[in-house]
Every structure is written in C-alpha cells, then in structure tokens.
Design brief:
Strand order of the largest sheet: 1-2-3-4
CATH class: Alpha Beta
Number of strands: 6
Structural class: alpha+beta
Shape: globular
Radius of gyration: 16 Å
Number of helices: 1
Order of helices and strands: EEEEEEH
CATH superfamily: Stage V sporulation protein G
Distance between the termini: 44 Å
Largest sheet: 4 strands, antiparallel
C-alpha cells in the first residue's frame, strides 16, 4: 500500500500534539485529522475520532478510521512520521537560511 502524507500544521507549543496531517492511501482514500503525538518514549500517530456521551453522560471516543492489521498501522505510522520529520527539517533549514540572510 502506498501512503502520501500532507502535513497540514506543525505545532510547536511544548505539548504532546506535534502536527496534524492528511494521509492518502493508494490514490483512492484520504483520511484527514491524523495527529502526530510526541512523548518522552517517542512519537506515534493518533487516528481521527468522534466523541459522544453515553446514557450516563460519560464521554465515549471512537476512531473514525483505523488500520486493521499491525503491519498496516506500522506502515502508515512510518510514512506519517517520515513526512513529519522531513517537514520539521525543511522548516529548520528555511529558518536557518533566513537568519543567515538577515
């Protein structure tokens, strides 16, 4: 399966949410709202979800999309994290270049 990742937003506020992105699979399906989460143990992706309340008023979350197999999850996660790291590196290079020109 081929994954194309578009990093929509990089978030640099010191919190675990690092980026949001869209992932296109085999040029046939796109999933929006995939999140890059960074922790002390490493980075991972979180799938988009919907929230609602159960009969007792407790919030319930359910993934709108998720890979079925661990191999598919790993492949998608590898593609998203590689795109995120490339975007962060490109932003850092552009910032460094702008600082040199200033």
């Amino acid at each position: 399966m081929e994954f194309k990742v578009k990093i929509r937003r990089i978030i640099e506020n010191g919190k675990p949410l690092k980026a949001t992105c869209s992932v296109t699979m085999d040029d046939m399906f796109t999933v929006h709202g995939v999140k890059v989460i960074g922790t002390e143990k490493g980075s991972f992706i979180a799938m988009p979800y919907e929230s609602n309340k159960d009969a007792d008023g407790n919030e319930q979350r359910r993934d709108v999309f998720h890979p079925i197999t661990s191999e598919a999850r790993r492949a998608m996660e590898d593609a998203v994290l590689a795109a995120y790291e490339a975007k962060v590196a490109a932003n850092a290079a552009a910032t460094a270049e702008a600082a040199v020109e200033a």
